[in-house]
């Protein structure tokens, strides 16, 4: 199981690493977008900061996955991004749906594998214990 964990962790890390570097450093030409996906993408760019924040977050999480450090934390931070990737591809750009499915399933697997790290989050804290 540890081999599968390492493979999934490294693949997910590499995917986010290459994606974030390619966008942050303008290494690839953006494909021609159409329809609602184009409107969605233009809205993100119009904010002026969101794409950079998103890609920097992906870069930090990718490095955590690749180096095997703070993986549970990186998995929690990347979870909403992974879910959004899935839904964007499900609703707006179906050609990327396999990647969206992989990202969500891989992150869910990492979360499940590291489930012991999340146990303290589900323990009730009472005021008199603090």
Automatic annotation (TrEMBL):
The chain crosses the membrane at residues 7-28, 48-66, 73-91, 97-113. This is DoxX family membrane protein. It is a multi-pass membrane protein. InterPro entries: DoxX (IPR032808). Keywords: Membrane, Transmembrane, Transmembrane helix. GO terms for cellular component: membrane. The lineage of its organism: Bacteria, Pseudomonadati, Spirochaetota, Spirochaetia, Leptospirales. It is found in: Membrane. The keyword Transport does not apply. It comes from the Bacteria.
């Amino acid at each position: 199981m540890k081999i599968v964990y390492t493979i999934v962790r490294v693949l997910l890390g590499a995917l986010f690493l290459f994606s974030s570097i390619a966008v942050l450093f303008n290494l690839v030409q953006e494909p021609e977008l159409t329809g609602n996906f184009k409107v969605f993408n233009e809205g993100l760019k119009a904010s002026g900061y969101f794409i950079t924040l998103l890609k920097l977050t992906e870069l930090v999480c990718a490095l955590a996955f690749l180096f095997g450090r703070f993986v549970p934390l990186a998995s929690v931070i990347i979870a909403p991004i992974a879910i959004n990737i899935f839904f964007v591809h499900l609703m707006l750009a179906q050609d990327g749906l396999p990647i969206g499915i992989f990202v969500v399933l891989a992150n869910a697997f990492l979360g499940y594998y590291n489930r012991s790290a999340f146990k303290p989050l589900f323990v009730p804290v009472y005021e008199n214990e603090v």
